[in-house]
Amino acid sequence: MSVCKNVVPRIPHMLHGGDYNPDQWLDRPDVLAEDLRLMKAAGCNVVSLGIFAWTALEPQEGVYRFEWLEDVMTRLFENGVYTILATPSGARPAWMAQQYPEVLRCGPDGRRAAYGSRHNHCPSSPVYREKTTAINRRLAERFGRHPGLALWHVSNEYSGECFCPLCIAAFQQWLQERYGTLEVLNSKWWTAFWSHTYTDWSQIVPPDKCVNALSLNWKRWVTHQTVDFMQNEILPLREITPEIPVTTNLMGTFPGLDYHKFVPVCDVMSWDAYPAYHDRPEDVSLAVQFSFTHDIFRAFKQGKPWLLMESSPSATNWMPVGKLKRPGVHRLTSLQALAHGADSVQYFQWRAGRGAHEKFHGAVVTHDGSGHTRVFRDVAELGQTLGQLDALVGTSIKPAVAVIYDWENRWAIDESSGPRRERKDYLETCVSHYLPFWQRGIPVDVVSMDADISNYSLVIAPMLYMVKPGVTQRLEEFVKNGGNLVATYWSGIVDEDDCCYLGGRPGPLRKLLGIWSEEIDVLYDDEAVPVKFGAILSKEYHGRIFCDLIHAEAAQVLGEYTGEFYAGRPALTVNRFGAGRAFYQAFRGDDAFLDEFYGALAAELKISGPLGTSRLPAGVTLQYRGDAKHNYVFALNFSAEECSVPLDGINLQDVESGECVSGELLLTGHGSRILQVNG
Ligand code: GLA
Ligand code: ZN
C-alpha cells in the first residue's frame, strides 16, 4: 500500500457531503433518485449512512436486511459519492429494548430509562456489546469490500452516564485496578473527611453530587468505559477491514468525556460544529472559541487533518433561536474549519425528514425538495470551492505556540469547592490566552498537560490547578532547554486525586516558577485591583476575579499590584531556568493586558502570523495552512463590517479568482478568502 497523506485514503479531495438517511425514504425511490442528482449538483462526494438505521438493518432479532443499503451505496458510488458507513449503536430497535431491558441506561436513582430517544445505552451491558459487535461484524462482512466504503463512523456522539448495577460493579473493578488496595484509595482520596473511609470495594457508589476525588474518578471511569465500548465495537471492523480508517464524531469541548482518550482508538478525529454567527456582538468571541476547538482537533494527532463531520447548512432546531445563516456565513464557517486543518465540510443533514424531532433542522434539501433554494445554492457554491482545493488535502502546519487545555484539570477545577463558586471559567480563560494569537494570525496548538511540548517555543498553561505525574518534569525540561512557559494563578494546587500539595503553592511548580504563593484573594465580579508594570508594558492594567499573593523567590518581578492591602506585592514575574524562562501571571488579566503581554512576547520570540505580529482588524483572523509547495492563508472576517487588511509588501493570490492581491486585502462583512502566498 502506498503511503497516502489524505486521512481518508480513498478520497484524495476535500470531503463534502453529510448525514444521509435513505432508510426514512425506502418507499420513495423517486426521492432517492432525485438525491443522487442533487448531490452531483451540490458537488458532494461523500455521505454518512446508517447512523440511526438499526431497525431498517435488523428488523427482527438476527434477521438482517442489507439489500437496501447495498443498493444505495452502489448507486451513490456509481455517481461519484463515497460512503462513510456508520455502526448503528447510537439508537436501537424497540424489539431489543423490550427483550433485553439491560441495554437501556439507569439514572442516578437506579431507575431504568423507558425506551425511546437515543444516545442512551448502557456501556457495560454484555447483551448490548454482543448485539453491536454482531451487527458491526455483518456490516463489515457485507460492505468491507465495497469500493464505495471510505471510512467507518462508529456510533454517534458518545455521551452520558449509566448507574445500573453492571456499571457500578465495573466502576468498582476499575478502581481496584487503579489503586490496588482500599488503604491506598482511602489515603489518596482523603476519605477520613466526613467519615467516608471505605472498608469494602462494594461500598463505593457513583456520586450523586460533587465529592471531589470520587466525582473525578467517576468521570475518568465514564470515559474509560465509553472508550472500552467503542473498542469493543470496532473489533470486527479492524479484523475484517484493516485498511478502512475509523472515526467517531465528537462534540468539541463537551465536558462529559476526556476526548484525549479517544485519540489512540481513532485513525482520524472528527467533530460536529454548529457555530451561530448572526451579526451579534458575541460573534467574534464565538469565532475564537470555535477556532480554539478546531485547534484541539488539529493537535490531537500532531497536526494530522481532522474531519468536520457535521455542521448545519442553515439553521438548527435546538438552539434557543434557530436564526438563518446570513449571506456568506455558511462559507465563512466552513472555511474556518478548513483553515484550522479540517479536510471536510459535512452537514447534518442532507435531506430533512417529514416527521419526528429533526424535521425543522436545517438541511441541504428541505421539504420543498428542489435545488432552487438559497441554502442549496450556498452549499453548491461551497462544493465548487472545495473542488479547487485538492492541493490542500492532507496539509497542516506546525505552530510554535501551544496552549494547554486539559479535560481532567477542567473537571477538578469545576468540581472543587472554592475559592469561588462561579466564574472559575477554566475553558474561557484558556480561550482568552489564545485570543491574542488569533488576532495576529499566529497559529496555536491546543494540547493536554500530557502532551509532548518539546517542539514549541512558547507554552501557555492557564490555571494548571491539577499537576499530574510527569507534568512538572516535562515543563522543567522544556524551559531548561530554552522554552518559554507562561503559568498563572491557581496552578500547582492539587495532585491527580485532587489532594493539595503540601509545602507551599504552586507545589511541584514552585522551583520552576521561582515564586511562593502564600494566599489567593478572589474578588466580587465588579471589583478590580490595579497592576503596574516596569518597562515591559506600556499601561496599567487590572486584576479581576483572582489575585494571587505571591513572593518572588528566584523570580524577577515585572509588575506589581498598586491597590488593595497587597499593593507593592508582585503580580507578574519571570524566572530564568536553564536556557529558558517561566513567567507567572498572578492575577486574572483582561483581554487588553493579555493582548499587550503576548503581543510583546511574540515579537520578541519572532513568532509571527502571515503579517508579522501586529493586530489584525477587529473580528478578522488569518490562518496559515499548507506544505512545502503550497503556502495558503485563509482570511476570515467574523464581523459584519467590510474591512481592509494592510499587506505590507506581501503578495498574495486569490486561489479561486486567480487575482493578485497586494497593498491591501479587502474582505466584505462575513467575507472569507483563500489565498496563496507568492514568493
Ligand atoms: C448532533 C447529532 C445529529 C443531529 C444534530 C443536529 O450533532 O449527531 O444526529 O441530531 O446534532 O444538530
Ligand atoms: Zn449500565
Structural features, described:
By secondary structure, this protein is α/β, with parallel strands linked by helices. The chain folds into three domains: 218 residues, Glycosidases (TIM Barrel, Alpha-Beta Barrel); 205 residues, Class I glutamine amidotransferase (GATase) domain (Rossmann fold), CATH 3.40.50; 58 residues, Immunoglobulin-like. Helices cover 29% and strands 20% of the residues. It contains 16 helices and 27 strands. The strands form five sheets. Strands 10, 11, 12, 13, 14, 15, 16, 17, 18, 19 and 20 form an eleven-stranded mixed sheet that branches. A hairpin with a 5-residue loop joins β24 and β25. α5 runs parallel beside α8, α8 packs antiparallel against α12 and α13 crosses α16. The protein is globular and about 75 Å long. The two termini are 35 Å apart. The relative contact order is 0.09. The model has no long low-confidence stretch (mean pLDDT 96). Zinc ion binds next to α6.
